[in-house]
Structure formats: C-alpha cells, structure tokens
Amino acid sequence: MTRLPATSSGRPPGAGVLLAALGLLLAGRLPAEEVVPSPPAIAQELRSFREFGSVLYIAAHPDDENTQLITYLARGRDYRTAYLSLTRGDGGQNLLGPEFGDLLGVIRTQELLAARAVDGGRQYFSRARDFGYSKDYRQTLTKWDHQQVLADLVRVIRTFRPDILVTRFPPEPGPTHGHHTASAALALEAFALAGDPHAFPEQFPALAPWQPRRILWNGYGPRGDAPAAGVLHLAIDGDDPVTGAPFGVLAAQSRSMHRTQGFANFTVAAGGSGPRIESFEVLAGEPATHDIMDGVDTTWGRVPGGGAVGPLADAVLAQFNPTDPAASVPALLALKARVAALAPDPVVDEKRLLLDRILQDALGLTATALAGAPEVTPGESLALTDSVRLASAVPVTWQSTRLPGRRPARPDAGPLGPAGTTAALRWTVPPDAVPTQPYWLRADEAPGMFRVADAALIGQPGNPPTIPIEDTFVVGGQPLVVRHEVLFRDPDPARAGLLRRPEVVAPVSLAFGSAVQLFAPGSAHEVDVTVLAARAEVQGTLRLAAPKGWSVAPRVQGFRLAAAGASQVLAFTVTAPAVPETAEIAARATVGGTEFGTGRVAINYPHLPPILLQPPARLRAVSLDLAIRGHSVGYLPGAGDSTASSLRQMGYAVTNLTGDDLTAERLAGFDAVVIGVRAFNTRTDLAARLPALFAWVQAGGTVVEQYNTPGGLLTPQLAPYPLKLARDLPRYRVTDENSPVTLLQPDHPAFNVPNQIGAGDFTGWVQERGLDFASEFDAAHLVPLLACSDPGEAPLTGGLLVAHYGRGYFVYTGLSFFRQLPAGVPGAYRLFANLVSLGR
C-alpha cells in the first residue's frame, strides 16, 4: 500500500512552502507510525510514479462512489484517482450513535478517508451541505449556492488536473435523489469551465486552467450483450499487487467503512466468475470507443523534456530487487536528478514528492516526530522528539530539521543507523492560535453552504497538520526532504500506541447543561454552564451573551480551577421575553485577557481515529407556550437520537428501556413509551416483546413509535393493526420543510390536548417534514391525522397515524421529530407533547 503522510493541503500561518508541497500528495488519512513499506508496496509506488493517467470520480454523498472502479483504477492501472463528494453526508441518519448534522458530517468525512486508505484513491469535497433528501435537482440548486458549488468543482479539477471526469449519476432528472442529478449536472458545467481562462479568475494565479479530455457517466452495468452506440464497457478484474487481494474484496472493505450507513458487513455480491463489467457513456468532450483513456498520453512523454524519464523509471522497476530495495538507490538518485531538471508543473511537482518518498522507502529511512502532550493551548511551548532510523547501509547524513515559523536547525546527530537517532525540539504555539476545529465548521454556515475563509482549503478533506515538520537529508550528494507531521502516541495499551495529531485547545471548555432550554414566555430559569480546565491553575470570568429581549443575571462570574480536568458549574438566571421567541445564547470565558467560547465534543468509534471537536458553546433558548400531561415516560432507544433529552426538557421523567423491560410489571407506572428512530431496524430484543407492549397499550398505555425504514426490518409487525412501509422511499417522504400541512382531524385530541395545534406550529421546521410515511395501513383503526406533500405531488396521509387501541393509544409517525426537537422547533415540541399526553 502506498504510504503517505497523513494530512491535507492548505496554508496555515507559518507553514509556508512546506505545507504547499505536502498538499500535493496528501489525502488527509489517519496518521500512522512511520514503517518501511514492504518491497511490493515500493514497487507499487514506482509504478504509480511511472504512470501519468488520472481520473476524478464525482458524486453527491459518502457511499455514492463506485469503490470497485476506484480500486481498479488506483491499484490496477496505477492512475491518480480521486473521489469528489459534493457533500460530507451531514444530512443523513446515523445507525451507530446520536450524532447528526455537523457531527455526522465529520464522522462521514473520516469514513470516506478510511475508505480511500483501502482502495488507494484520494478524497475531495465541495462546500455544499447535505440538507437531506431532494426529489428534484432544481430544488437542490435552490438550497445550494449554484455558483459556489460550481466554483468548487472547477477548483478541484484545476487542483487535481484529471485527464477524465466520471460521474456516478446521469445529468438528466430521473427517479433518484436530486443531489445525485445535481452532482452530474454541475460536473458537466465544471467540465466546460475548468479550462476557460475567463472562468473563476479569482482562482488564479494559484491555479491554472485545466481541461480534462472527456467526461463520462459510469452507468450501472452493461445494457445488453453488446455495447450500444456511444457506450463502452470496461472489464474490471485482477488482484492488488501489494496485498494479493482481489480488487472486489478491497472494494468491499472500502465500502464497509461507511458504517454509520449500515455497511459494516458489506461484502462482494455473489455472482458468476469473470470480471465485473462497468459501462460508460461520454457526456461531453472527445469520444471514446475502446477505453475511458482513449487518446490520453499516460506516459512521461506528455511532459516537455520528460521523454527520458519513463524509460529510466522502467529500468528502475525492471531491476528492482525485492530482497534488497536499497540496491535501487543509485538509479533512483539518477532519476531524481533528471526529474529535478524539468520545468515546474503541478503534477510533475507531485511526482517529485512521490519519487522522494520512493527513495526514502528504498533506503529504509523513517522519521517519526512525537509530541510530549496530546493537547496544547495558545502560547504554550511543546516538547517534541524527532526520531530517525535507517535500515540500509547506504550513507545518509541528517542535515537539518524545520518546524513552522522556525529556521532550519542542524540536529546534533551522529551516523544514522537502525538503532535510531533522536533530536529534541520545542515548538511554541502562536498566542493567537484558535482551538482546533474542522476548517469548514469554523464559521457559521450560509444557507445550504459551509463558509470557508481560506480559499486554499476549499475542496480538501480535512485540516492541514497541526505541526508540520521537514527533515532534510543528503544522499549521494543530493538533498532528500522528508515531510511529515508531529504526532502524539496514545499511552493507553488498549489503543496499541495509536498515533494522532496533537490538538490546540482552549484553556477552558464550556458546556451548557443541555443544547436546548425551554421557557414559558416571561419566565426565568436557571441555566448551568460547566467550565472544564485544560490546564492547572486557570482562572477567569464567564458571561452569557444573549440577544435583546432576554436578560441574564449575574452579568459575569469568576472561576478558578486548580487542576487540569477540574470543572466548576456556574449558574445564571435567564429570563425569556414575554412573547414566544427562539434565541441563541453563547457562553464566553475570558482567560488572561483573551476570550474563548468553545465546547468540547469527543467522538470515538472503533473504525475511526478519535475525533475532538470544539464547536461554539451555545444554547438554543425557546420561549413557547407548552403544556404536558402525565409525568413518567419510558424511552426505547433506536438507531440514535436525542429525543430522551428533549422529553426531559419538556418536563418528563425519562427512563431508558430495553426489550426485557416490555412487560406489564415493568411498564406499570409509565404514562407513555416512546420508541426511537429505526428501532425496528436495529434492535433484536423488540420483536418478541411486542405482544406485551401492545397489551400494555390495550390496558391504557400510550406508545409513540417514530419512523422505521423498510429495508432490514427485524419484524414485519410494526403496530397492533396492519401497517406497511414501501421500499419506494422517495414517494413516501416530504422533503420540503415548508410544505403546507392539512389537519384531517382538527378535533382529535392530538391537536387539542393539552396544546392547541394550528398552522403556526408547522413553521420553522428544518430539512424536511418527514420520511418513511406508512404506505398502507388499516384506516379503520389507524386514523390519519394530517396530510402534506412535496410540490406537485399528491398529499400523503401516512405521516401521523393514531389508533385508539383498547383503553390506550398507539401512534406511528414519520414526522422528523428527531431533527425538529434538537433544533428547538416550538411547534414540534407542542405536537410531540400532545402525542405523549394522549389518554392522560
């Protein structure tokens, strides 16, 4: 496997040329300890160096990409291969945990990077937000900023400089996600503009125009026995030359990284023997009849003065000795000198870096820079060690090492060898450094888009290195620059010495007791803020910034924390205005004259590196008229949501339940049971307990069941009466969050007790009305209470069904309460309170 340092391109303060060079090669992968690659991996690097073909695959979301094609192109044909996902998947659902929205987007970014580490591709993104399902690409382009997303595609094309573009979806509207069609339509536009010197001139001179040869649509397999006119077929077959695994197996492993979407156990589909056949249609550009690369010179001969490089690389590869990679060093040095004489060019510059990497690997030269602490605050000095090992007997001199903002320093190092040589360094974090946060989340987003201040970061999968480092060696009279980054080795044996980036953190992190706080109009509530110290002996003041109409007392409070990890809870009294209103209240701490206002969110999944986010510490304060009935609610978690927290905010005492709790004895005393989203898709302890749960309803209980999806249901029974979900998912969802809602039973208790529900309660919803509405149901018992639809479609009535079952009530709802409640939508709280209060 080609091993590259883990980072992405960008130009943070003080990094200068070092990061600009790093960015040409790196794909933002998980940092890994420097280990000399195997001889087959070095040979694969040589083939990649020799090959000049490049392909950019374009689609809309994480998991849209064709991993088998990416694997074949990257590992089988040695092409520079990348996937551009227009979104980070932040609008989807999460089958692993409670993270949604921006948090889910960060997780899915890491899942894509993990996938690319398996299949050999690189990863890019645009600034478009995934706002959920869209039935029409024109609707998609009303939420995305068309010109900004188009500019991002052009930027990635000019950065990566692919020979061909490949879309996963056709550009014509069809029965698919509107984001899908939009990705193809935008790719077609970008293909026409990327080479235009008058298009997006703000990208010059950092980038130059670049025109790919053609753009193709990668269809879903051959149609018929022979290619139709304008359609070519490509047979994908073979084994990875490094691991020996079939390309299909690697592709399946790559796809299995999309675990928040349920692909953890993804395997190669069973089928007949022989290669997989991929079909392609040329959408624009030059025709192709035999291969997607028809007419493209994929050799060094395309580079002015580069004609001799290819034969030299062929000779190195032909003479490569797997038992003695260092024997290739003289030939590699001659090749390096020849490439150094070529004129600057983005792809050639990238090849220079790759050749340096090959030379480093053939030498058995590794460099590992370790930080003395996992976190550092602005202005602090961090102790570092830079360790170099040389496995071969080739003479190598360690000439210098350089950190950001520092001049190159000569290490006090003797001869290099397998025992290793270490240089002790120190690096001071700039006093104005901001806490680490994914670059696309540093500013409040515009509608449908992320805002990115540094244009050099647009398109990149992740942040540049926290601390890049550059070691310069001399080999055979030529300089060899090894670019890597400072990492921290986790001391926990359970993590097997995992290496990760050190983080810049605020001296204190701030956390509200809950993300949403409900107020009756004109009422006052105590709001708690926890101050958590990152360092010992930290003191300062804390205040809450509230908009006009909201009052906070006291205005400011002091805190002092003696030890790192110590915390203090400060209480403020917040008074809401006398009218219903939603506001954001921010927590701000001042330490040493500098103001900080970030929280701390740690995300840990076993298939990904640890993720630390430091979002703004904010509270969504909602002043609304809300009444509830009943007191005690049992909550049966599903795929993950924050509904239990929302119920507590409403005033309920909430107890988490398991399937074993669904008995008459254990359910006694609950006023209602709420079932989490996708519980029937994810819980194996539910099906056998449904008769007891429904008997409890019959005896007077209330059950509110949130949506499930028809794929992978673990039981066909969803309700005490017949209720079915259709696999035609787009037909049974309402994507327009502003869709008019008709109350079909306006006198029903669900709309009147204890809150009077009207049209105003359906304003301000986010992303969608709902999904997985019931497609068939026993209308004699399951009463449809409302109707809504997307523009131009027939009204759907399966979004809120209520059955009076025995003495109790059963509710099935596809309305997306799991999104509305965390977003603080007042009407969603009022309606959900009524559903939980049925029968009380």
Question: Could you characterize what this model shows?
Answer:
The protein has 840 residues and is an alpha/beta fold. It has four domains: 53-298, Rossmann fold (3-Layer(aba) Sandwich); 365-501, Immunoglobulin-like, CATH 2.60.40; 508-623, Immunoglobulin-like (Sandwich), CATH 2.60.40.2310; 632-836, Class I glutamine amidotransferase (GATase) domain (Rossmann fold). It is built from 17 helices and 39 strands. The strands form nine sheets. Strands 3-2-1-4-5-7-6 form a seven-stranded mixed beta sheet, sandwiched between helices. The N and C termini lie far apart (63 Å). The model is unreliable at 1-32 (pLDDT under 50).
The low-confidence parts are 1-32
Fourth-tier CATH superfamily name of the largest domain: LmbE-like
- Structural class determined from secondary elements: alpha/beta
Please tell me the overall pLDDT: 92
DSSP summary, beta strand count: 39
Q: What's the story with the biggest beta sheet? A: 7 strands, mixed
